[in-house]
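tl;dr need the bound structure. longer version: we got a ligand (3,4-dihydroxyphenylalanine) that a collaborator sent over and nobodys looked at where it sits. i said id run it. heres the input, straight from their email, havent touched it
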Amino acid sequence: MLQELDQLKTEALAEIDGLSGESDLEAARVKFLGKKGSVAAASSGMRDVAKEDKPAVGQKLNEVRTAITDALDEKNAALTAAKDAAAFDGIDPSLPGRPIPQGALHPLTHVLDNAVSVLRRMGFALAEGPEIETEWHCFDALNTPEDHPARNESDTFYFENGKLLRTHTSSVQIRTMETTPPPIRIIAPGSAFRRDEIDATHLTAFHQLEGLYVDENVTLADLKGTLEFFFRELFGSKTEVRFRPHFFPFTEPSFEVDLKLEAPGKAAKWIEIAGCGMVDPAVFDAVGQTRDDEEYSPKKVTGFAFGMGLDRLAMITYGIPDLRLLIENDVRFLKQFA
Ligand code: DAH
């Protein structure tokens, strides 16, 4: 019996040593150590061994089992190591990694994110509308007369079907009121388009942020408080904010908002930053006409609206001298805001 076991060990170790694949290795494990394998068969032969020989045979059996197990483990480790080495063939893992260039947010995105986060804290929800608009949403419903200069072909991009590229985000005021009953408190950042000559302060495609709050008893004090808080969050708590009477067709009264700001190294001066006002009852009437209900009856609700240029906000925030820098995608410029 001892001799047989020695022979089993020798054969098994030789066979395992010659293996070259993982599946062969598994087959060998079953063949030698499995329930019906050679070691199990030898073990059941113990029954016939004379009592006085049992300890020696038992010991030998253990020795054989351990030797086979170790051989299988070693072989497994060797095969894995060979596979790993093959995977690295032609690659030098000690070389330093290649740096992955990291992008950064565009200055306009920074300004937009800041503005939106302040207004969201004040309870304004995001709204949107199409960039290709109808004359109704861009002008008529906003109480803009037929002969208003903004409606000229020379100022607005028209399509042949009569639609146009929205000249301001104020159209989202109408879109939102048409679909949503009051109270509403929304902001709508987005692109707007005008047929301007491109220069340091004009682009044909630019960005605005619109705001609208409609409820019962919304007052001019709410408008002032909201915009003062907003601009002081963006430019510092001591920032002076001035409301200067102005005219917009869709608000009455209307104002332009100025901030007193210092450009680096220069004396503080008033800078125009936004338009705003109390929603004109004619706008509510136009919305009521589409909705065919009284939800926005000027007898029931009042509201304020405001709009500002985000590109201009970025210029002021970062001291950018020329709007065109925002669209040229010159990495030397953009890198400064990373
Ligand atoms: N839509 C105006 C513009 O593009 C800006 C504006 C002024 C928006 C007054 C408003 C507002 O909501 O109340 O010049």
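gonna send this back to them w/ a short note. The radius of gyration is 40 Å.
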